[in-house]
């Protein structure tokens, strides 16, 4: 099994099969498209991160001294739009999902390889439009586009930013469509639904949200653009419209969108915890179905973003209760992951450290969601830093921690190289500490009453010290995020060649060479075993250590 | 530099204690759950760390356990839900005899007008121990009227009224924030809530008064010629407005609506939207003819026709005498 590629006489794989720009830009290989996505989302991640850095620097002092209020408002708006639409939503599905979904189910590619390439081009077109929008003035509405500010008051580039999101949205829809069809139609013989890796279940649930939710935000954005240019009177009360209608439509997508970000990350964590505990996941069917439950319930809770927006008391009651029902499947997952470790044989490799980090941050993020779903408390803390902290714990703490865990876990498969384990562990630690230092103080700030989206807090200088903690933490966090990029790049040239299955992990993706050939499998695999058959696989073999894995 | 480093906000309203109690309960629940998970993860990770030759013990799962850790959290969540809902109901239901303050928000300031006629900008003076109801609207975009020390917040929308209320418990000066992003100077849309002892408040009140808001409303009412149709008998082309406010109104299409601030507002700006049973849609709109402040005054006037509270000036001689009528006594 462990057959490292020699430097000479390399066998043909998806990376060395063809060279040159055309072989990448016109490829229909899901693995190459995954790498195209990896490059593009990393680019946008660092743009969004740069905005975050400026935001944190501005908030170091109460007065708005580093940038003017207008600039600050654009910074948090562009930070949100870039991170949500151009990093978090595509991140795991379009990179790791693209790379792994076909391999995990034993397929040669996705069902629609050319649509897959089209989705990347749509993403790039949307991204270029967003970049152009930013470079020629940007937007200052917040990523939420609330009306009637966005339709009738701001002078910034709403229509252009909206169209960028609109185009990128179709990239997301097409990826979801591709996954649903692939998972239904292209599973290898013997790969029944109950044998699917939980990563696949999570992506299936995610794809359903992408397919059903994204068209709603697309049409909503078109309505905003139409209202702005043609003054239709849909959202503007001066023209007979209803601004709350916009919020309902916006959150009908944008709440489930949170699950687009977190579900794939949960899928990754299931794979990692099983592998590094050397155990079948505890309660497989409950973990699998909880993903579907989250996707379904996730569509029924949107108005919990609107408890003080002017909706009726009774509507608020219904949405508060439903919000708690979506918390149950999330809790079930956490309990099952914890139980999986019981009587396991636990290895502390870097991916597992990221999974631990995910567990810690997601638990805090999830539990603070209970505070926000409680009507009486939400009135006080909504639109404060409490909310900011909560959703960063989920969408950054949870989702990005899982993404990084997955990148480490599958990096040997993707690149055919091993990353430096010591640096990877260090980065996991730095990210965890930096993250908590950045965002935990924001819970306190929020309960104290500091509103979000404030360029200037010189009226309440008592909030400064917590903001200083937060900015200091952000600096640490920034280092934690830069490190993996540096050593991943380094490993592509200097890393030790990876064996086919360095972790002795279950899953069809590990039964192909590292890196895999273009069509993944030389012959179609036939699955005769259950998922996570770690009993048969046994331990991570010492020969992997000899190969320099650990 | 950091002479003041609070970790808990001031508690200065009756509702603040309710919110804090639930918050502390949640801190305990969340703290225990975090502890449970962290202790398990750390204990398992240490106790079951990899040892050469000791294989993992395969466990498939356990339905009873799954049910336990679904049902128990659900039960706890429902307790939180009900508790949160009870607090919310209290926050959202203003007492009937609360003192009223009308608020108009605009980019980027708060304009406030007490029912007694006092006007303020970005400041609200209130007495300790009295219920205060804020009737709010916006001239432009959505804002949000947030007083952290009172634990209350309500978005302020253009084109309609939203309300919130509080009863201050402690004299002092507290932050007022706009909590819904509203444009360039959003973070400058801040102010103070000044809570005073009742005697102090009365002294403040008596300075520079312009007469009650309802009197201003009555003046506008007659200037705009409203009284031509809305006469104080049943012979007008529009409904008699005596005693309308706070009562159900039967409409032409058979529906019944409750005559609250938003209904009065809508009847002025969009008279055709809800026609009172027995009347014709003959009134034209006043959209664009009255400012938000004038609207507030008109609403306050119409309300004053329905209140016979002692101390509230009765602006119409026949107001308290005229019995509310089942039919035809409504704004059209």
Overview of the molecule:
The complex is a heterodimer of chains A (550) and B (332). Chain A is mainly alpha-helical. Chain A has a single domain (29-546), classed as Cytochrome c oxidase-like, subunit I domain (Cytochrome C Oxidase, Chain A). Chain A has helices spanning 21-25, 30-58, 69-104, 113-135, 149-153, 158-185, 198-230, 243-277, 284-297, 313-341, 350-373, 375-381, 385-415, 421-448, 464-494, 534-537, 542-546. Chain A is globular and about 65 Å long. Chain B is of the alpha+beta class. Chain B has 2 domains: 10-38 and 67-211, Cupredoxins -  blue copper proteins (Immunoglobulin-like, Sandwich), CATH 2.60.40; 213-304, Orthogonal Bundle (Cytochrome Bc1 Complex, Chain D, domain 2), CATH 1.10.760. Chain B is 32% helix and 20% strand. Chain B has helices spanning 14-47, 63-92, 198-206, 213-223, 261-269, 292-304, and strands at residues 99-106, 109-114, 119-121, 123-127, 131-138, 143-147, 152-156, 162-167, 172-178, 191-196, 248-250, 256-258. Chain B has a 5-stranded mixed beta sheet, covered by helices on one side. In chain B, a hairpin with a 4-residue loop joins strand 6 and strand 7. The longest helix of chain B is centred in the N-terminal third of the chain and has 34 residues, at 14-47. Chain B is elongated, with a radius of gyration of 27 Å. The model of chain B is unreliable at 309-332 (pLDDT under 50). The interface between A and B is large, with 96 and 89 residues.
């Amino acid at each position: 099994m462990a057959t490292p590629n020699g430097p000479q006489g390399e066998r043909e794989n998806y990376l060395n099969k063809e060279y040159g720009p055309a072989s990448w830009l016109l490829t229909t290989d899901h693995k190459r498209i995954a790498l195209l996505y990896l490059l593009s989302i990393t680019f946008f991640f660092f743009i969004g991160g740069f905005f975050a850095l400026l935001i944190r620097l501005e908030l170091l002092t109460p007065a708005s001294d580093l940038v003017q209020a207008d600039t600050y408002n654009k910074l948090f708006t562009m930070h949100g739009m870039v991170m949500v639409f151009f990093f978090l939503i595509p991140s795991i599905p379009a990179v790791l999902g693209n790379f792994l979904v076909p391999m995990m189910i034993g397929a040669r590619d996705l069902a629609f390889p050319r649509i897959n390439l089209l989705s990347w081009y749509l993403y790039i077109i949307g991204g270029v439009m967003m970049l152009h929008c930013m470079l020629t003035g940007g937007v200052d509405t917040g990523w939420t586009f609330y009306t009637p500010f966005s339709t009738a008051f701001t002078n910034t580039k709403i229509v252009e930013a909206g169209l960028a999101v609109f185009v990128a949205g179709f990239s997301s829809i097409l990826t979801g469509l591709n996954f649903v069809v692939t998972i239904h139609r292209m599973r290898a013989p013997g790969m029944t639904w109950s044998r699917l890796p939980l990563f696949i279940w999570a992506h299936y649930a995610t794809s359903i949200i992408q397919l059903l939710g994204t068209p709603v935000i697309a049409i909503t954005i078109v309505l905003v653009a139409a209202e702005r240019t043609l003054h239709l009177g849909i959202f503007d009360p001066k023209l007979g419209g209803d601004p709350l209608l916009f919020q309902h439509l916006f959150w009908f997508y944008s709440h489930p969108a949170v699950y687009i970000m977190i579900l794939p990350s949960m899928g990754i964590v299931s794979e990692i915890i099983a592998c590094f505990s050397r155990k079948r996941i505890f309660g497989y069917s409950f973990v699998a179905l909880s993903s579907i439950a989250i996707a379904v319930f996730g569509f029924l809770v949107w108005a919990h973003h609107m408890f003080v927006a002017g909706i009726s008391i009774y509507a608020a009651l219904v949405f508060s209760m439903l919000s708690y029902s979506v918390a149950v499947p999330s809790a079930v997952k956490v309990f099952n992951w914890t139980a999986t470790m019981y009587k396991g044989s636990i290895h502390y490799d870097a991916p597992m450290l990221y999974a631990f980090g995910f567990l810690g941050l997601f638990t805090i993020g999830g539990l603070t969601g209970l505070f926000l779903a409680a009507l009486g408390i939400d009135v006080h803390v909504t639109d404060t830093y409490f909310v900011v902290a909560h959703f960063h714990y989920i969408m950054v703490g949870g989702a990005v921690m899982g993404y990084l865990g997955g990148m480490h876990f599958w990096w040997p498969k993707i690149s055919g190289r091993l990353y430096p384990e010591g640096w990877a562990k260090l980065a996991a630690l730095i990210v965890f500490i930096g993250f908590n230092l950045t965002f935990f103080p924001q819970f306190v700030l929020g309960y104290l009453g500091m509103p979000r989206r404030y360029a200037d807090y010189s009226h309440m200088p008592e909030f400064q010290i917590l903001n200083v903690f937060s900015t200091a933490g952000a600096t640490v966090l920034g280092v934690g995020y830069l490190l993996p990029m540096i050593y991943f790049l380094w490993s592509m040239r200097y890393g030790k060649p990876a064996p086919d299955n360095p972790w002795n992990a279950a899953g069809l993706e590990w039964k192909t060479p590292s890196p895999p050939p273009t069509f993944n499998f030389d012959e179609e695999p036939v699955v005769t075993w259950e998922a996570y058959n770690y009993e048969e696989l046994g331990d991570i073999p010492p020969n992997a250590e000899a190969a320099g894995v650990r | 530099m950091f002479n003041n480093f609070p970790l808990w906000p001031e508690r200065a309203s009756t509702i603040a204690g309710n919110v804090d109690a639930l918050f502390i309960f949640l801190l305990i629940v969340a703290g225990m759950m975090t502890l449970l998970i962290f202790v398990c993860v750390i204990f398992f990770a240490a106790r079951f760390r990899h040892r050469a030759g000791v294989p993992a013990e395969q466990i498939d799962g356990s339905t009873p356990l799954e049910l336990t850790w679904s049902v128990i959290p659900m039960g706890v969540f429902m307790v939180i839900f009900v508790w949160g809902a009870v607090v919310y109901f209290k926050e959202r239901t203003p007492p009937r005899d609360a003192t009223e303050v009308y608020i108009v928000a605009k980019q980027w300031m708060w304009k406030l007008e007490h029912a007694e006629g006092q006007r303020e900008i970005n400041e609200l003076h209130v007495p300790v121990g009295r219920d205060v109801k804020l009737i709010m609207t916006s001239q432009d975009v959505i804002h949000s009227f947030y007083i952290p020390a009172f634990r209350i917040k309500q978005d302020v929308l253009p084109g309609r009224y939203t309300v919130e209320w509080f009863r201050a418990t402690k004299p002092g000066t507290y932050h007022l924030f706009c909590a819904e992003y509203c444009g360039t100077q959003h973070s400058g849309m801040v102010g103070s809530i000044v809570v005073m002892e009742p005697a102090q408040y009365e002294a403040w009140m008596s300075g520079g008064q312009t007469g009650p808001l309802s009197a201003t409303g009555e003046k506008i009412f007659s200037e705009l010629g409203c009284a031509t149709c809305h006469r104080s008998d049943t012979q007008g082309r529009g409904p008699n407005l005596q005693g309308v406010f706070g009562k159900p109104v039967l409409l032409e299409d058979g529906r019944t609506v409750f005559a609250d601030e938003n209904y009065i507002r809508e009847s002025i700006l969009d008279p055709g939207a809800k026609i009172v049973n027995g009347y014709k849609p003959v009134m034209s709109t006043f959209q664009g003819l009255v400012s938000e402040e004038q609207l507030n005054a008109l609403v306050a006037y119409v309300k004053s026709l329905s209140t016979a509270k002692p101390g509230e000036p009765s602006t119409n001689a026949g107001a308290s005498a005229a019995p509310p009528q089942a039919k035809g006594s409504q704004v059209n």
